[in-house]
Amino acid sequence: MIILEPTETDTEAWRVDARCRDGAASLVALFFSDDRDDIGRAKAFCRACPVRRPCLESALEREEPCGVWGGELVADGRVQLEIPRRGRPPKVRRPDPYFDHWSEGLSA
Ligand code: SF4
Predict the structure, then answer these.
(1) pTM, whole model, 2 decimals?
(2) Given ligand 1 and candidates 45, 53, 57, which is best to mutate, with the most ligand atoms within 8 Å of its CB?
(3) Domain ranges of the chain
(4) Per residue in 33-64, pLDDT tens?
(5) Residue 20: CB within 6 Å of ligand 1?
(6) Count H helices, E strands: the chain?
(7) To 5 degrees, how large is the angle CA 81–CA 75–CA 53?
(8) In this structure, which residue's CA is closest to atom 4 in ligand 1?
């Protein structure tokens, strides 16, 4: 049996301390759900994670297509400031927020 352990040169060694790491991937459905309540629960779960910042930085560097990473909803490699609403989209689309740096959009 081979067990992969992060090394000091591993740039993603922070994963060892990930709160969502349970060895069974039991939270995958929650973290990649389209349901607003699930997204809120996933974001709340991340709030107590000690590696929230590197998790989000890594997701943005990889341009993750979707999911909750580092306590933020990410889509197409960008932090989404609003959870998509249920139902019909508005007739006039709201403009996307603009930030010089991704960390400006982090919630507390
Ligand atoms: S911030 Fe959230 S998604 Fe990232 S490692 Fe922690 S619990 Fe998992």
Answers:
(1) 0.73
(2) 45
(3) 25-81
(4) 999 999 999 999 999 999 999 999 999 999 99
(5) yes
(6) 3, 3
(7) 70
(8) 70
